[in-house]
Amino acid sequence: MPEWKCEACDYENEGGEECEACGEAKPVDERYVGYKVGLVTECKEIPKTQKLKEIVVDIGGESVKVVTNAPNVKEGLLTVIATVGATVEIDGEPTEVKKTTVGGKPSNGMVCNGPMLGWTGGDAKQAVTIPEGTPLGSAPPPTRPRGI
């Protein structure tokens, strides 16, 4: 079953970020502008805080520092980061992600949970987990991946 249809040539693609027939880039779902799949490359607890972690995430050729309280975040996790300027939904309200300081550390994005991505299922306190092999820097899948 095709994953996406190319807008340029109508070819039905099985996956990938470019059309297999013409090379056109896969269209980005507008709700995920500024959201990027990333790999947590560093993770350390922030002393004297309640469960906060400072992480470094490779989002495809760029690394960003983010502060999170998601308990499942650890080095090696493939997750989704809402970068500075992206709009996330928190408690039903659209909110722009801004550079901020949390626990005395700079945070240049936000680790996403399932509800922030519009996914059903999953825990709102946990960072989403993305399947291995998903390209760093790509947009998140439109629905929660199964079996991970």
Note down, in words, how this protein is organized.
By secondary structure, the protein is an all-beta fold. The chain is 0% helix and 34% strand. It has strands spanning 4-5, 12-13, 35-45, 53-58, 63-68, 78-83, 87-90, 93-96, 100-102, 105-107, 109-111. The strands form four sheets. The protein has a five-stranded antiparallel β-sheet with strand order 5-4-3-6-11, with no helix packed on it. The chain has a two-stranded antiparallel ribbon with strand order 1-2.
Residue windows where pLDDT falls under 50 for at least 5 positions: none
Oligomer: single chain
> How many strand segments?
11
Q: Helix/strand/pairing class, anyone?
A: mainly beta
Largest sheet: 5 strands, antiparallel
Distance between the termini: 21 Å
Brief overview, please?
The chain has strands at 4-5, 12-13, 35-45, 53-58, 63-68, 78-83, 87-90, 93-96, 100-102, 105-107, 109-111. The chain has 148 residues and is mainly beta. The chain has a five-stranded antiparallel beta sheet, with no helix packed on it.
List the keywords.
148 residues; mainly beta; 5-stranded antiparallel sheet; two-stranded antiparallel ribbon
How is this fold's topology laid out?
Layout (H helix, E strand, L loop, with lengths): L3 E2 L6 E2 L21 E11 L7 E6 L4 E6 L9 E6 L3 E4 L2 E4 L3 E3 L2 E3 L1 E3 L37
Antiparallel strand pairs: 1-2, 3-4, 3-6, 4-5, 6-11, 7-8, 9-10
